[in-house]
Structure formats: structure tokens, C-alpha cells
């Protein structure tokens, strides 16, 4: 079998794109070990000498992530329009830079896990390496039209984790044969590992009450100052696990709060599945990755939807409501009422969560195999045969 080279395009803004790329890389190495999988940071391709950092003192991803940690998300919808206008203005230059990259690296398949740049990525690949398939894998539950994830008039493939996203691609006129549905968002392989922890014993070991309902508070790898208000409002009533990520200052402030209900403050960890298995419900922003991880671990969610919610995440709150997966409020100032509401209906929310069977991590390699097979002129059956049955995956 001829080895194939698969490029996964990501960047570090927000963390979810890189996390999805790493998860898919791990799945591909397991399900298609004969493929060469390369992770490609788009910003390193476009700015190989890191000139942006030299001029500003930080990378564009760092600046964005600091804003998220501080909660400076108001007005991002307007800023997005400016960013998209700048990308459109720079389209010819972006295409030239990317053409040179494709000619130098010669992938057999390109999978984009980033928004906003798919027009330049597609046009550059199509002109430099005609016939090489281009795939956009949405890492959001839905598109934010126009020109965010799904570009019109591009004969390319889309991988969509919800019916809403697939419908959006169809409405823009894309061929149904190029729209590939999965059962959810890509999450890390660790979330599929069998649960072996003795939850009561582990709660006791880390200083939590084994019998008390427990919320896990998570706002990505850089935390959020909103966590401080949540901890203060729930200090007397709710046992919490607070994941602060790289935000050591936030962790210190949380540890300094007077303890009433038991509280566990965790700094950066890669073992989020372990802490989710100690919790009964999730509190956080409506990020597609974190709520998908929580739901897969059986946790109903509490999220907010307001003017500070990033525009590409607003549908996620609607998805939670539509599927009865938890509680959506307009502000974390009412977190005490949200927790009471969720606990009152906890059995029903947990039943709804259990109905979500997300196997996207194992479905995407099969989709990519079919796309490669079609590009090589193979039948769909022959393309699928190169991968094991997903039933064999954990």
C-alpha cells in the first residue's frame, strides 16, 4: 500500500483547534499507521520568521488567549468582521505564501481545523497541487456565516459534527457527497478510556465529600476570572473542582477564598477526564470541545449565553437547550439558581446526556480514507477496507 501524507492545519488561538488536531493525529496513527500525519501550524507557515512577535512582543495567538483569560470577549463579533476583511484584502499574498508551502511539502490530503482561512487554503492548494483533496473539519457545532468555516463555490469536502452544520453546507450549494456527518465533535482519545477510578475513594483522597454533588468548573487552558465569582457565589452551598490551567494567579486567589463547602483547585493538568469522572455536572463557557467532553463523560452542563459569549459559540448554548443537556442562563451571577435548577432535574438531564453517543474521533479516519480512495479512483468499499472497524476502538 502506498503511504499517504496527511496534513492537519491548526493554530493555537483558543486551544481547541490544536487539541482537535492532536486528537485526530493520535486516532490516525492508531487506525491508519501507514499514513504519515503532519501537524501544520498555519501561523508558522504564514510568518516563519515570527515577525509579528518581534514587532508586538507576543504572537497573535498569545494575544487572543490572554483576552479569553481576562474575559475580554465583548465586541468580538465586530472584530471578526474586521479580521475577515483583512484576510480578504490579503488573499493574493496568502495564496502565494501557501502555494510555496504546498509545492515544498507535497501532501496527499489537507485537513483544515481552522476557520476564516479556508478560502486561501483551498485556492492555494488547488492551484499548486491540482487533484489533492481539501477537507474542512469544523471544530464548532455550527458555522457562523458568512466566510467563517464554510466557503461557497469551493469543490471541497466538509466534516460536520451536527445536523445544523451539515444543513448549512447544503444551503450554500455544496454537493451532498462532499458533506460528511459525524456523531459529534472530535475529543481526545483519553475520554474513551474505561472508567476504573473508585469515585468515592478518590474524592475522599483529594479532600472532597464522597456523598456531596460536585461541579467541575472549566474555562479552557487559561482559566477565566469568571471562575472567581462562581466560586464565591457557590462557596457555602456547592462542592467544586476548579481547573485553572496555566493561570497560577487565579489558582492562588481561589485557594485564598474562605472554605465552606469543600473545594479542590487544580492548576495545569492533561488529565481532565480523571477530574470529570469525580464530578456530577460541568460549569463553564459554551466551548464546543469542553461541553462535548463533559457530555461524553456523562456530565450535564451549566453554561451562559450573553453579549460576552463569543459569536461562534452562541449556537452551542442553543444545542444544549435543544437536547436537554443542562441549564443555560444569561449570566454567572445567577449560578446559585442554575445549580439548584440542574440538581432538581438531574436525573432527566443525565438521561439526555447518556443518549449522546459521540464516536467522531473514530469516524473521521474512515471518512478521510474514503476521500483518499475516491481521489485515487478506488471504490468506497476498498477505501474503507484499509481501516479497522470502529467497533474495535474503545
Task: Give a short overview.
With 394 residues, the chain is α/β, with parallel strands linked by helices. It has two domains: 5-187 and 359-392, Rossmann fold (3-Layer(aba) Sandwich); 193-354, Glycogen Phosphorylase B (Rossmann fold, 3-Layer(aba) Sandwich).
Task: Give your account of this protein's structure.
The chain is an alpha/beta fold and 394 residues long. It folds into 2 domains: 217 residues, Rossmann fold (3-Layer(aba) Sandwich), CATH 3.40.50; 162 residues, 3-Layer(aba) Sandwich (Rossmann fold). The chain is 44% helix and 14% strand. It has 18 helices and 12 strands. A 6-stranded parallel sheet has the order 2-1-3-4-5-6, with helices on both faces. Strands 9-8-7-10-11-12 form a 6-stranded parallel sheet, with helices on both faces. Helix 7 links the parallel strand 3 and strand 4. Helix 1 packs across helix 17 and helix 6 packs across helix 7. It is globular, with a radius of gyration of 22 Å.
Question: Total helix count?
Answer: 18
Note the beta-strand portion: 5-15%
Distance between the amino and carboxyl termini:
26 Å
What is the molecular shape? globular
CATH top level assignment of the largest domain = Alpha Beta
What is the H/E string? EHEHHHHHEHEEHEHEHEHEHEHEHEHHHH
Helix amount: 40-55%
Structural class comes to alpha/beta
Number of strands: 12
Rg to the nearest angstrom? Answer: 22 Å
Using the 3D structure, state the CATH architecture of the largest domain.
3-Layer(aba) Sandwich
Strand order of the largest sheet: 2-1-3-4-5-6
Would you give the CATH topology of the largest domain?
Rossmann fold
Amino acid at each position: 500500500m502506498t503511504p499517504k501524507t496527511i496534513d492537519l492545519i491548526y493554530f493555537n488561538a483558543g486551544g481547541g483547534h490544536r487539541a482537535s488536531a492532536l486528537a485526530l493525529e493520535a486516532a490516525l496513527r492508531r487506525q491508519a499507521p501507514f499514513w504519515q500525519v503532519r501537524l501544520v501550524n498555519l501561523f508558522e507557515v504564514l510568518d516563519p520568521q515570527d515577525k509579528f512577535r518581534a514587532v508586538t512582543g507576543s504572537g497573535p495567538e498569545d494575544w487572543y488567549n490572554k483576552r479569553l483569560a481576562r474575559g475580554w470577549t465583548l465586541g468580538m463579533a465586530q472584530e471578526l468582521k474586521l479580521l475577515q476583511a483583512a484576510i480578504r484584502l490579503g488573499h493574493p499574498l496568502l495564496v502565494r505564501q501557501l502555494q510555496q508551502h504546498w509545492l515544498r511539502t507535497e501532501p496527499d490530503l489537507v485537513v483544515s481545523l481552522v476557520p476564516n482561512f479556508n478560502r486561501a487554503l483551498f485556492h492555494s492548494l488547488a492551484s499548486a497541487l491540482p487533484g489533492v483533496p481539501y477537507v474542512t473539519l469544523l471544530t464548532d457545532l455550527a458555522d457562523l456565516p458568512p466566510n467563517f468555516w464554510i466557503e461557497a463555490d469551493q469543490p471541497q469536502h466538509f466534516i460536520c459534527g451536527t445536523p445544523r452544520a451539515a444543513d448549512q453546507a447544503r444551503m450554500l450549494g455544496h454537493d451532498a457527497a462532499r458533506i460528511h456527518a459525524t456523531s459529534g465533535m472530535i475529543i481526545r482519545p483519553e475520554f474513551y478510556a474505561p472508567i476504573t477510578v473508585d469515585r468515592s475513594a478518590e474524592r475522599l483522597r483529594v479532600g472532597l465529600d464522597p456523598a456531596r454533588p460536585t461541579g467541575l468548573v472549566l474555562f479552557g487552558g487559561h482559566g477565566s476570572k469568571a471562575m472567581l465569582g462562581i466560586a464565591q457565589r457557590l462557596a457555602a452551598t456547592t462542592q467544586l473542582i476548579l481547573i485553572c490551567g496555566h493561570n497560577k494567579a487565579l489558582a492562588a486567589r481561589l485557594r485564598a477564598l474562605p472554605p465552606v463547602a469543600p473545594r479542590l483547585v487544580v492548576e495545569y493538568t492533561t488529565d481532565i477526564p480523571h477530574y470529570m469522572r469525580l464530578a456530577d455536572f460541568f460549569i463553564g463557557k459554551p466551548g464546543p470541545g469542553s461541553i462535548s467532553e463533559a457530555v461524553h463523560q456523562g456530565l450535564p452542563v451549566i453554561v451562559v449565553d450573553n453579549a460576552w459569549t463569543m459569536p461562534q459559540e452562541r449556537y452551542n448554548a442553543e444545542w444544549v437547550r435543544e437536547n436537554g443537556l443542562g441549564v443555560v442562563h444569561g449570566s454567572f451571577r445567577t449560578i446559585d439558581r442554575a445549580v439548584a435548577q440542574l440538581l432538581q432535574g438531574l436525573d432527566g438531564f443525565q438521561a439526555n446526556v447518556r443518549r449522546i453517543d459521540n464516536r467522531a474521533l473514530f469516524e473521521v479516519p474512515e471518512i478521510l480514507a474514503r476521500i483518499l480512495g475516491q481521489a485515487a479512483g478506488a471504490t468506497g468499499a476498498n477505501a474503507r477496507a484499509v481501516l479497522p472497524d470502529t467497533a474495535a476502538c474503545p
